[in-house]
Amino acid sequence: MKSIPNVYIILITLYVSFFILDKLIFKNTLLEWAGGKSFNNMQEREWYRLLTGSFFHQNILHLLGNAYAIYFVGVILEDNIGSWSFLAIYLIGNIATYTAYSTFSNYSNGTGASPGIYALIACVIILHLYDPSFLNLEFGDWPVNYTFAYLILGNLYGMGAFIVHIPGFGFGSIITLLLLLFKIII
């Protein structure tokens, strides 16, 4: 029996906690300290922003969209591939995307977990194509419906969203294929 909650529950708790702390108590000071920035806007030793920016959200709609997405993707995926693989895909998807985006773009306020979520969605799709019986995906099921809607509608939020979702999906595809190659999953 598991003694700790699923990673996706821990992530949702962190998203909500940081949002409440930042908006209600610290009045956006946490976001200023830990939000994502491009390399040309970072001060020395602010590389931590490549990770911490993904735990902050601009507004309640952004928070809810990502919280529901990580929840439903987690329901589909985490118990099937294991918590460590789930966390690795999520974190590498976020960090790699924020690193690429920070290198080629100029911005001072990057937030959101969606690159990591898109990395996990890539994993869901690849595993389903690899072995359709492994995840047993069917439309009409809430986790599948929401994940598919998020995959499509999340890219309509603006060009900036689309630009960070595509690398997240790409990095998730690469990580998933490596995990399959080395037989870490399935």
TrEMBL record:
Keywords from the named record = Hydrolase, Membrane, Protease, Transmembrane, Transmembrane helix
One of the entry's Gene Ontology molecular-function terms is: serine-type endopeptidase activity
Q: Where is the Peptidase S54 rhomboid domain?
A: 45-180
Is Ribonucleoprotein one of the keywords? no
InterPro entries the UniProt entry points to:
Peptidase_S54_rhomboid_dom, Rhomboid-like_sf, Rhomboid_protease_S54
GO annotation, biological process: proteolysis
UniProt membrane topology term: Multi-pass membrane protein
**One protein family per Pfam:** Rhomboid
**What is the annotated localization of this protein?**
Membrane
What Gene Ontology cellular-component terms does the record carry? membrane
- Give the SUPFAM superfamilies listed for this entry: Rhomboid-like (SSF144091)
The family note in this entry says:
Belongs to the peptidase S54 family.
Q: What is this protein called?
A: Membrane-associated serine protease
What is the originating organism of this protein?
A: Salimicrobium jeotgali
